[in-house]
Design a protein that fits this description.
By secondary structure, this protein is mainly β. The chain contains 3 helices and 23 strands. A 10-stranded antiparallel beta sheet has the order 7-8-9-10-23-19-18-12-16-15, with helices on one face. Strands 6, 11, 13, 14, 17, 20, 21 and 22 form an 8-stranded antiparallel beta sheet that branches.
Length: about 325
């Protein structure tokens, strides 16, 4: 090899190394530890015009899921930087953002440690991160939450794993408790045959359920249940069909979609045995809650449940009239 050829080869190798370094640096910027909403040690995941912020200090939440800088998740600035302490173990209000829990809601063990406590945050790849809870001393339960943001789309894949490191058998289920911004419109497909006469039930209070409610803000159209505004009572439960999705049109011209697996002929643990719940609290926030099946988790074993989130631009209808078949078409094209 001549000296000239050697120099050309050396230059080419240096260019390749430089390009790889730039590419790696760019990838590292797509996932990083940041300070946000008054909290340190948060994790930011970025992809094109999507930003996700995971908050491990109080409850292991998704505190931001934003398209073009607009967050679809409910925010409460009075909670910025709030951390549970011995003198103030619980927040005075509902913790904001994308919250998660375990169920069943009436028979679960105490989950304050998971819902308000500190989590361990880790970056696991150029597009993913993991949050791990503390272990509950009484039950031996701990939770793992894994997040992966697609490199090209808004798709955020989230998996929660319930780990039973205790000595007794555990009955538990996944329970999503995600707060979206308020006053939007919910759309979801219901099954052809439903146990509920009006495709949903309404909790009149903690211990009274209306099995055949009638509400002017809740209607059925083309095989879809639509909650177009605040109902008479905030807590609703329903079954979505095996298509497995719920869409929420936010007033900020965003469509927030959750996809999840529906298990037919499987036991669900809520008192209604429903696979989905919506808690619609007037104009402030709307809770979008897929529910997993009731799992039997033996000591030393674990069970997982996965949601897929999507966020796209969608003009909010000023007359609050929404076309469910149009929503279906949008959802089916989200991959």
């Amino acid at each position: 090899m001549t000296k000239q050829n050697l120099n050309i080869t050396t230059i080419a190798v240096n260019i390749i190394i430089l390009l790889l370094t730039i590419s790696l640096a760019q990838a590292q910027r797509n996932v990083s530890f940041v300070s946000a909403y008054g909290f340190d040690s948060c994790i930011s995941l970025r992809s094109n015009n999507i930003e996700v912020i995971l908050e491990p200090n109080s409850g292991g939440r998704v505190i931001r899921y934003a398209l073009n800088g607009v967050n679809v998740l409910y925010e409460d600035t009075t909670q910025n930087g709030w951390i549970s302490t011995a003198s103030m173990p619980r927040s005075k209000g509902h913790l904001a953002g994308g919250r998660f829990d375990i169920g069943p809601s009436r028979t679960k063990p105490n989950t304050d440690l998971f819902f308000f406590g500190k989590w361990k945050a880790e970056i696991t790849s150029q597009s993913s991160a993991k949050l791990t809870s503390q272990t509950d001393a009484f039950t031996g339960i701990f939770l793992i939450r894994e997040f992966e943001l697609d490199k090209r789309t808004s798709k955020l894949r989230f998996r929660q794993t319930i780990v039973n490191s205790g000595r007794i058998l555990l009955y538990a289920s996944f329970w999503s408790r995600t707060f979206a911004t308020g006053n939007g419109i919910c759309v979801m497909p219901f099954p052809e045959t439903s146990r509920f006469p009006n495709k949903y039930i309404m909790f009149m209070n903690r211990d009274t359920i209306n099995m055949s409610p009638s509400d002017s803000n809740i209607l059925q159209k083309d095989g879809y249940l639509i909650i177009k505004g605040p109902p008479q009572k905030p807590k609703l439960e329903m079954d979505v069909s095996e298509a497995g999705w719920i869409a929420y049109a936010a007033t900020a011209n965003l469509l927030f979609v959750k996809k999840f697996k529906v298990y037919n002929n499987t036991r669900y643990g809520e008192v209604s045995a429903a696979n989905t719940s919506v808690w619609y609290n007037g104009i402030h926030m709307t809770e979008i809650e897929p529910i997993g099946p009731l799992e039997v988790i033996m000591p030393g074993k674990k069970k997982s449940f996965t949601e897929e989130w999507f966020l796209v631009s969608y003009p909010f209808p000023s007359d609050r009239k929404i076309k469910p078949l149009q929503i279906q078409h949008l959802v089916e094209n989200l991959k």
